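Sync notes, pocket subgroup
Present: LS, DG
LS reminded everyone that the earlier model was apo-only. Rerun requested with acetyl coenzyme *A included. Inputs:
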Amino acid sequence: MMKPGLKGVIAAETKIGEVDGLNGRLVYRGYEIRELTKERTFEEVAYLLWYGKIPEPEELLQFHRLFHQSRQLTPVMMNVLDALPDNMDMMSVLRTVLSAEGDSTYGWKPTLDQAVSLTAKIPTIIASRKNTLEGRPLIDPDNNLSHVENYLYMLHGSLPKAEHVRALETYMILTMEHGMNASTFSARVTASTESDLVSAICAAIGTMKGPLHGGAPSEVIALLDEVKQEQNVRSFLSQKILAGEKLMGFGHRVYKTHDPRALALKEKLMEQEGKDEWLDLALSVEVAAIAALEEHKPGRALYTNVEFYAAAIMKAIELDPSLFTPTFTASRMVGWTAHVLEQAENNTIFRPLSRYIGK
Ligand code: ACO
């Protein structure tokens, strides 16, 4: 039987993560996502996805050294970055510059050290490109800063606020891994031919670039911008629903109950209530929107999705919209590379069939 888009087909077994849409659960290697965002750093969760366990303090120290010292771009990558036209979008820049890292040391099989090294370089590529386009000097990565802190530091040229780091870090932990999504599948298909890790990741970046996948929270930002001007938010949102519009940032195809990533982000934002106008606005808009949805769409189980709070975070940390999908890429690198390593452990080439309906 043909399954368009391979919907409902289980194409691999994985020990990396579980997406349970019916019960609203997301699990990384046996740990509930909210447990991880409450207590763990980006580095600890990346270690968990790559090595299969939470690191001991000594292991974490060693890992910090390896991960943080891999941020510097190679001379070849810098040359390629310099040669790219100004009108190339950031996802294409990431794909092209990362590709320049694919020398002969990247053969079959992929290694964990390669995964760590490539992931460490993504924020440096993004920040270097952004600074070059804006005519600012390049900012060297600071090895004393954490992965997320250093990303914001290289982008803005100053040390970020602790609450902004924690908010972005929570988002980046939540988006590291999400089962057999299109880009992860792409990476595994490429790896299944015994191709190298750089090629698998370039395939994944190309897949993530499409608007049906790397969806940015820009439309939620437009909603928050509109709502900001309104006196009566609930009645404004009700009118939208009655006019047949979808409220951006609400509802989800897979999660038919709360999106666990939205809950975890909200929890983090509530710790910072009163410290940022966008975060406060999002918290109050959610209350009005849920009330309006319950009134006009009763029984549809519509809740906030991860994009809703992601938008508030992006606004709060003043991240340019052109960086939303690249930032998602920076976190998903961990999931992609973990999947490629898993694919390599027990490889079967992906080779589905097609049914001929031509002449
Ligand atoms: N606002 C208002 N009404 C909504 C919304 C919404 N955000 N979402 C669903 N509904 C209504 C629909 O109009 C429909 O009503 P009806 O029964 O009267 O026809 C009912 O709820 C069921 O909606 P469907 O579109 O069938 O639900 P589905 O699960 O197919 O769609 C989707 C999910 C596409 C995400 C939808 O909820 C939506 O468009 N949301 C807004 C866009 C958005 O936030 N996208 C980001 C998703 S998260 C992510 O991609 C990481």
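DG: The CA atoms of residues 182 and 230 lie 38 Å apart.
LS: The pocket of acetyl coenzyme *A is lined by residues 215, 241, 246-253, 297, 300, 302, 305-307 (CB under 6 Å).
Action: DG to write up.
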